[in-house]
Every structure is written in C-alpha cells, then in structure tokens.
Amino acid sequence: MEFPFKGDENALRGMESAELISIGSQDGRPSTIRPGKPVYHWVFERLVNDAVFRAAQEITINEKQIASWESAIRKCEDELERLRNVEELDGGWFRWFLGGRTNVWERERFLLRKLGDANRKIEELDRMNKDLKAVIRKH
After folding, report:
1. Tally of structural domains, the chain
2. How far apart are CA 17 and CA 26, in angstroms?
3. C-alpha distance from residue 129 to each of 53, 71, 107 (Å)
4. Which structural domain, as residue segments, surrounds residue 25?
C-alpha cells in the first residue's frame, strides 16, 4: 500500500471512532470513506475542493516518498560499494572480459536498474512538487 498509511489503518479507524468519518466496506475491505455526520459533509467538501490544501497535502506526501526513495538509493549505493570490494573473489574483470557473467556483475546490474528507477521516481515527484508549489503561490 502506498503512502500515507502503508497498510496501517489505525489513523482511519481513529477518525471513524471519533465519528469524523464513516468507512464503508466491500468484500471485507474498506472501500469508501464518507463524512461521519451530515454536518461534516460541507467541511469535507470544502477541504477536498480547496486547491491550496490539496496541493499542500500532496507536497507533504511526495516529500515522504522522496525521502523513502532517497533511502533506497543510499542502500543501493552502499551495496554497490561493498560489491566493488568482493568483485575479485567472483572472478573480477578478467572473467567478465572473457564473456562470463559473475554473480557480482548480475547483482550490480540489478542494483543499477533499481537506482535508475528510484532516480526517475524522485525526478517525477520533484516535478509534481514544483507544479503544486506554483498552485500554492497562485492562490
């Protein structure tokens, strides 16, 4: 599950207990969220339709996702550095030169693809944040 809850429904269940929201279920899973009382309907509608509020919330979520992707990048970079130290044990550049793929080489390729994917996702989120900040400045 994606941000902001990542599978933890405690915040939603807390709002449901406070009767701020009502959670409808389908096939045993939450499927709809509605205002808990009719008086909240107008408030929720205003929040949902408020471009500045929505942009600010999306920026917050995007920043958390960026931090998560940056953490994944650091882990990949750390592992790539460790792999550089063990590459000679797996046949090193000589084995690669002769056309043999090493276990280290395969892992490096995987990590580099993962790094590329993470970088692209961060760039996309940064672009989205730039657009959202423009919405906030406009209002």
Report:
1. 2
2. 19
3. 14, 19, 33
4. 1-49
For residues 3 and 58, membership in a common domain is answered with no
N- to C-terminal Cα separation, the chain? 32
Judgement on whether residues 106 and 39 belong to the same structural domain of the protein: no
Element (H, E) at 71: helix 51-86
Please indicate, yes or no, whether residues 30 and 73 belong to a single structural domain of this protein.
no
Do the Cβ atoms of 73 and 115 come closer than 8 Å?
Answer: yes
C-alpha neighbours within 13 Å on the C-beta side of residue 101: 7
CA distance 104 to 112: 12
Q: What is the pLDDT of residue 95?
A: 58
State which of 17-21, 95-99, 104-108 shows the largest mean pLDDT: 17-21
